[in-house]
Amino acid sequence: EIRKVSLINKAEYLAKKIEGDITVVSPDAGGGKRARKFANLLEGMGFDAELAFIDKRRPKGTMNQAVAEEVVGEVEGRTCVIVDDMIDTAGTMCAAGELLANRGATDVYMAATHGVLSGPAIDRLSKSNVKEVVITNTIPLPEGASLDKIKVLSIAPVIAEALDHVFED
Hints:
This protein is of the alpha/beta class and about 170 residues long. Helix content is about 35%, strand content about 30%. The chain contains five helices and seven strands. The protein is globular and about 50 Å long.
C-alpha cells in the first residue's frame, strides 16, 4: 500500500510538469511491474502512457556498472520517465537516459523512491541529459548531493495515509 501511494505521489508531481505523450521506462526487465503501475496511474490522469524496457548488460567482473544496449518500446517524440526503486551510482539510469535520447525521446525524467546517490551519482546526473530526478526523502541526501535537477518529495503524506489506514482498520 505504501509503495502504491509513493508511486501516486511521484505520478501526480510529474503530471503537473509534463505535456504530451509519455513513455514510462523500466531500466531493466525486473522493474516491469512497477513501470506498468506508474503508466496506469498516468493514464488515469489523462495521459497517453506507453511502456518501454531497457535491455541492459553488466560487463563481466564489474559492479555498479551497466551498459544500456537497446530500448524495447516506442520512445521517439515522447517524454520518457524512467522509473526504478532506487538510484545508487546512477550508472544504469544515466545510460538509459542517453539511450532514450539517442532513440528520439524529447525529454527524459527519472523517478525513484530511494535516492542513495553514492560515489559518482551526482557527477553523472549533473552531466546527463535528464531534465529532472524525482526521489523521496526515505533516506537523507548524502552530503554535497545538492543539484538543481533533483526534486525531493516528502513521504509524510504516505506515512500519514498508512497510519490512517491502521487506525481506521
